[in-house]
Write a structure and sequence with these properties.
Number of strands of chain A: 2
Radius of gyration of chain B: 20 Å
Structural class of chain B: alpha/beta
Distance between the termini of chain A: 50 Å
Number of helices of chain B: 11
CATH class of the domain at 51-196 in chain A: Mainly Alpha
Oligomer: heterodimer
Strand content of chain A: under 5%
Helix content of chain B: 40-55%
Largest sheet of chain A: 2 strands, antiparallel
Number of helices of chain A: 10
Largest interface: A-B, 31 and 37 residues
CATH architecture of the largest domain in chain B: 3-Layer(aba) Sandwich
CATH architecture of the domain at 51-196 in chain A: Orthogonal Bundle
Helix content of chain A: over 70%
Radius of gyration of chain A: 23 Å
CATH superfamily of the largest domain in chain B: Periplasmic binding protein-like II
Shape of chain B: globular
Strand content of chain B: 15-25%
Largest sheet of chain B: 6 strands, mixed
Order of helices and strands of chain A: HHHHHEEHHHHH
Chain lengths: 250, 270
């Protein structure tokens, strides 16, 4: 284990000489809670990205279903989640819906089944998922009908054609728009602080309330989010290039 | 190209760090000129600052704010604040004076101009269900405890007793989270629980621990004005409140159980 004490002390020195107060480096308590906040944010982002893509793929398939009910349910889901602000959804899930989902623990107290982190993950996945459905639908509609007809002529069923022909092509077309939505999702995870999920914004808020170093923490947040979004954009860009079909895509 | 972008980023960060522009002093003149005094008070802290059924902010602190406005002969405007933004509002000049249940701490003295003497005091306690039968502070170790963002003891209590604080923006959210069992108890000012303890709705709850961290409440002006005319005016006004019994009278008006702090202050300045 490398001894980081001199590194941390440099920040203490920085505060003493310049007044730039980065307690998240030299104060062990703040460092631990900020690190936890960072990890919670990453977890939330990771979970929501994966879940929202899965929702998008399933939703886009359900939209083309032959059953009217399935199409209606999908449309209702998209309208509900796309047309309401994510913060309102979060409050609705946590405070309104959460109040009905209780179990009684051994002390005889009613405790919620779903934690605030889980609610945030569910809510943000569904929110971003609703946009992803529309993004994938746009991609699916851009797949030439001749290609679909050719797949059918070769004996593919609806699901098989979707999985092996339509989706792989649609996915490539959808990637730039998906990229945008995922960047948005990464930034939207900060609203989880409203229901006290200890992610980065929440923790930063706690720290600046205690240490009164608002400008420093704001800047730390800014830098970290720029870096995180940069990572998402980079990974998506690599993926886009790796999936390119030579000659097919413009 | 990349290096230039990097340098631009560094510059943006550095300029943001330096951007705490001092606002011009002489708030007192400005208030008289405008004919309006803007005071930041709580709007979710019954009975110290809350909204009446018509939506107007009333309570112990709004009454004190009204007295300040009357002394200046200007109109009063109340700006609702929460713990996490009250000092920033003052620093940014959004409010002229803060009367928002703020405990005096050494750190806060460096950020805002806390006026002496203090006008009230509160300690820290936990509001919990009787079923938990809480006896000691260290029993909170590893337990989720609701709190309010911006309270100074949100760091002290986890550090010393190992409680896991789940902090919300205002009292309404914390209260709902407590009712729904998202935390075992609610850590906050003992003064905030007084009224709830008398409320039959909260009969299943108690405030069982010994109150800790009793600290005075300070009115605040901008840091650079603490010793200027505006700060001095407020210091004189608050001393006056103690001398004339205005604070004890206002406390009675809002049915707040008599605080030891005010009685002691009265005895010291007969």
């Amino acid at each position: 284990m490398i001894d980081l004490t001199p590194f941390w002390d440099w920040f203490r020195e920085l505060y003493a000489t310049t007044g730039i107060k980065l307690t998240i480096f030299y104060d062990a308590f703040d460092r631990a809670r900020f690190a936890n906040g960072f990890l919670t944010s990453i977890q939330l982002m990771g979970l929501c990205i994966v879940a929202s893509i899965v929702i998008g793929v399933l939703g886009a398939w359900a939209q083309g279903s032959r059953l009217r009910l399935v199409r209606a349910v999908t449309a209702a889901y998209i309208q509900f989640f796309r047309n309401t602000p994510p913060l309102v959804q979060l409050y609705f899930f946590y405070f309104a819906l959460g109040s009905y989902l209780h179990v009684t623990n051994n002390l005889g107290l009613a405790v919620p089944i779903v934690s605030n982190f889980t609610w945030a993950a569910i809510c943000l996945s569904l929110y971003a998922g609703a946009f992803n459905v529309e993004i994938f639908r746009a991609g699916i509609e851009a797949v030439p009908s001749e290609t679909v007809d050719a797949a059918e002529a070769l004996g593919y069923g609806r699901l098989a054609a979707y999985m092996h022909v339509i989706l792989p092509l649609a996915f490539r077309i959808s990637l730039p728009a998906l990229n945008n939505n995922l960047v948005n999702l990464v930034k939207t995870t900060t609203i989880a602080y409203a229901i006290a999920v200890p992610e980065m914004l929440y923790v930063a808020n706690q720290i600046w309330s205690d240490e009164l170093n608002v400008p420093e923490m704001m800047n730390v947040l800014l830098v970290i989010y720029v870096a995180l979004v940069g990572v998402v954009v980079y990974v998506m860009g690599r993926w886009e290039r790796a999936m390119r079909v030579p000659g097919y895509m413009p | 190209m990349l290096r230039r972008a990097f340098m631009a980023g560094i510059f943006a960060v550095a300029s943001a760090l330096l951007a705490s522009v001092p606002l011009s002093a002489q708030t007192l003149d400005k208030i008289k000129q405008r004919g309006v005094l803007v005071v930041g008070t709580k709007a979710d802290y019954k009975p110290f600052g809350f909204r009446d059924p018509s939506g107007k902010i009333v309570g112990f602190e709004p009454d004190l704010a009204k007295d300040v406005a009357d002394r200046l002969g200007v109109r009063l405007e109340l700006e609702p604040v929460v713990s996490a933004n009250r000092m920033q509002f003052l620093q940014q000049g959004k409010i002229d004076l803060m009367l928002a249940t703020m405990n005096v701490t050494d750190e806060r003295k460096k950020s805002v101009g806390i006026v002496e003497p203090s006008y009230y005091a509160s300690g820290v306690n936990v509001f919990v269900s009787r079923k938990i039968a809480l006896k000691r502070w260290d029993q909170l170790k590893g337990q989720k405890v609701c709190g309010i963002q911006g309270a100074f003891f949100n760091k002290y209590v986890p550090e010393n007793y190992g409680a896991d604080i789940v902090a919300f923006r205002g009292q309404n959210e914390a209260e709902t989270a407590l009712q729904q069992g998202n935390c075992v108890g609610w850590l906050y000012d003992d003064t905030a629980f007084q009224e709830r303890l008398a409320d039959p709705k909260w009969a299943a709850f108690e405030m069982p621990l010994e109150t800790i961290l009793t600290e005075p409440w300070g009115a605040a002006v901008r840091l650079e004005e603490r010793d200027g005319p505006w700060g001095q005016f407020m210091a004189k006004t608050i001393a006056d409140w103690h001398r004339t019994g205005k604070l004890i009278e206002t406390e009675k008006k809002w049915n707040i159980s008599p605080s030891a702090f005010l009685r002691k202050a009265r005895e010291q300045n007969p």
